[in-house]
Automatic annotation (TrEMBL):
Pfam families: Amino_oxidase (PF01593). Pathway: Plant hormone metabolism; auxin biosynthesis. Gene3D superfamilies: FAD/NAD(P)-binding domain (3.50.50.60). Residues 1-164 form the Amine oxidase domain. It catalyses: L-tryptophan + O2 = indole-3-acetamide + CO2 + H2O. This is Tryptophan 2-monooxygenase. Keywords: Auxin biosynthesis. Its EC number is 1.13.12.3. It comes from the Bacteria. Belongs to the tryptophan 2-monooxygenase family. The keyword Endoplasmic reticulum does not apply. It comes from Corallococcus caeni. It is an enzyme of class 1 (oxidoreductase).
Length: 170
């Protein structure tokens, strides 16, 4: 799995829609910032939320930091991206939540990262062990949707179907 840290921010107003240059976009990219990708909760137009995504070395550097430190780094990046002061962003901020996936006790990581030529490893990971252990999760999706929520959901259905098929044969 790759390192991943996300932050969810709720602001008093959706300031990114106040300017013509950013009003119609749902994704924003800042490759040099600790949070290189931001998105809105589009298509919900009334939302005042931004989600920040940090992966790879940037996420590894943020992982284990206090939520306050992560928030400060996120706001610094947003400040540069939207040309607003950190102070102004702080004043606009109503609520926030940091998700440090490496610190999660049950996952200890973020999305699966499948290197080129490694789909056979995904197939092996998806294979049941005996008649009792069935695997699901986005890292076991062999149809190209690894690393996605819908891939995780599909593999949950697949594992349940495998379990039920084995049970009916018993």
């Amino acid at each position: 799995m790759g390192a991943l840290v996300k932050i969810l921010l709720r602001f008093r107003t959706p300031f990114w829609r106040e300017h013509e240059a950013t009003a119609r976009f749902g994704f924003f990219h800042a490759p040099a910032a600790p949070f290189s990708t931001w998105w809105t909760l589009a298509p919900h137009r009334r939302t005042r939320h931004l989600v920040g995504w940090s992966g790879g070395p940037n996420a590894a550097a943020l992982s284990g930091s206090s939520d306050t430190v992560v928030l400060r780094r996120a706001l610094q990046g947003l400040s540069q991206l939207f040309h607003r002061s950190v102070r102004e962003l702080n004043e606009q901020l109503e609520a926030w939540h940091v998700q440090d996936w490496q610190g999660e006790p049950y996952t200890r990581g973020g999305y699966a990262v499948i290197p080129s030529g490694a789909m056979d490893a995904v197939e092996a990971l998806a294979r049941p062990v005996g008649r009792t252990l069935f695997f699901a999760g986005e890292a076991t999706h062999v149809g190209g949707d690894e690393g996605t929520v819908h891939g995780a959901l599909e593999t949950g259905r697949r594992a349940a179907d495998e379990l039920l098929a084995r049970r009916s044969k018993a």
